[in-house]
Amino acid sequence: MPTLLDVQRAIGAFMAHGDLAAAEFVIADGIAPDSRLSIYRNTYAGNLVGALRISYPAVKRLVGEDFFEGAARDFIDAHPPQSAYLNDYGSQFGDFLAHFPPAASLAYLADVARLEWAVNCALHAEDAPPLDPARLAVLPVDVDLKFVAHPSVRLFQTQYPADAIWRATIDENDDALTAIDLDEGPLFIIVSRDVHGISVTRMSPDEFRFAKAIFAGIALSRALAAVDCDMSPSLAAHFTAGRFTGVHLEPSNTQEGTGL
Amino acid sequence: MTMQRTPPTAAMCERSPLPATAGIGLRFPHHRVVSETQPKIGWLEVHSENYMGGGTSLAYLDAIRTHYPISLHGVGLSLGSHGRLDALHLNRVKQLVDRVQPALISEHLSWSVVDGTYLADLLPLPMTEEALEIVCRHVDDFQATLGRRILIENPSSYLRYRHSTIPEWEFIAAVSARTGCGILCDVNNVYVSARNHDWDASVYLDALPANAIGEIHLAGHNVKELPNGRTIRIDDHGSRVTQDVWQLYDAALKRFGPVPTLIEWDTNIPALDVLLDEAAVAARALERSKENIHADAA
Questions:
Q1: Do B121 and A31 touch (CB under 8 A)?
Q2: Which long-range CB contacts under 8 A does A239-243 form with residues at least 24 apart?
Q3: Torsion angles phi and psi, residue B48, rounded to 5
Q4: Per-residue pLDDT tens digits for B161-199
Q5: Nearest to residue B217, comparing CAs of B155, B124, B162?
Q6: Above 0.90 for ipTM, yes or no?
Q7: How many CB pairs under 8 A join A and B?
Q8: Closest Cα of chain B to A27: distance in Å?
Q9: What pTM was computed for the model?
């Protein structure tokens, strides 16, 4: 008698690449076992294509439903989900599209997908109350600051203007789409979520370098030392957008810090 | 397996922490209208996996749950998988339970995970002693983690295994008896599986322990014609409850007494009013069932 693991591995192989070994465990009763198994395989693929459709609406509109479904099915075969939390499924879709030959003529598609993944992560990131800037008004002197990033913050660099393409596609604004200059990159983008929703914002290379440092928990003085221009407006913008949830005070000459 | 038929009593209404009224499955398209209009409905059920993490959906649920009892219905824990439960997923469920404080928590008698891959469907188990032991161990672990009782739902299925030795109705009754968990009786699933496998639906209902039934599910299903002329019923939750299922529901209420009953709709989700309309049909059947108990008692 097959063990439970035998059955589950055989069905897993059927779901992954149509391996028919599982059919021998199944009673036909007027319907071929592989037809019975295929009902489950269709649901499996349908549910995952559906999850990708929700996470990648702009990619879907740019390539059309049929192309999207074909690409999604190839992606699912190459990257089956490792968790039942499907909001987390599809992180590698952008990298997959970058090397997907049928999409080779749409050089910007992978960048749009990477942006959509960042937006998806920001949408579903854990809730956390933003840091109140008033709490920095009463700091002792001679301390350095290490900020704690809101779980929704994502920073990335794109070759193409993925943000403009994404926005115009979601809004179905064809005029805006045709006006986009594909050569204006590279671009530096920050994505985050606050009570008003998702924000997708461009930054200068300096702002980006500074943001990379402070959102990685590097002390403010060191982050400032790495850039040439005034970062006060950038820091204020991060506060306004609720991108910090906490700050640690670090006496300048010791390793110890206190949470605020 | 011998069957003990317990006549339902009014006291059984109290066996579920939910009121013995009709509820509906809350899905994304109805978040806003439910939150803003607070329709008259006894309770709501949501899929646990849709509210993990943070953001808008969870904010809606936080707001809505102040007005309605909530049932958390999981689709991803895979109680029937060989090996241990996914600790990460179990922890996500636990966090959600702590936050939402649901009246009921349920999962499925099925499996979805093998060797770490999530197969994104509720797959049928071979009905064997080995599978029974594994499911019971996982239900024990789940209940111990949460510190409370869960319900398990009978699946709809499109295949049976050659080496199964236990009828599904005896299997699910045994899980309940061994672990103390309750049963979520999906009447549409009983109907779909009975028609697909030529089972007697009334035998299925009679085999379930009435005092363990904490909730009933109702939904629509689809009849698929195959090229060889055979038909198979697919549990797609995409239409109104069929007349045959409403009749089986009446039989279930006669057998179990009034039990909180959910209308589920997951594909081609209609306007909220359609769901409320279906729930009203269930509510009338529940009222009749309560009157019959009082008439019997008098």
A1: no
A2: A239/A130, A239/A131, A239/A133, A241/A192, A241/A194, A241/A199, A241/A201, A242/A130, A242/A150, A242/A192, A242/A194, A242/A195, A243/A130, A243/A149, A243/A150, A243/A153, A243/A190, A243/A192, A243/A215
A3: -55, -40
A4: 999 999 999 999 999 999 999 999 999 999 999 999 999
A5: B155
A6: yes
A7: 131
A8: 6
A9: 0.92
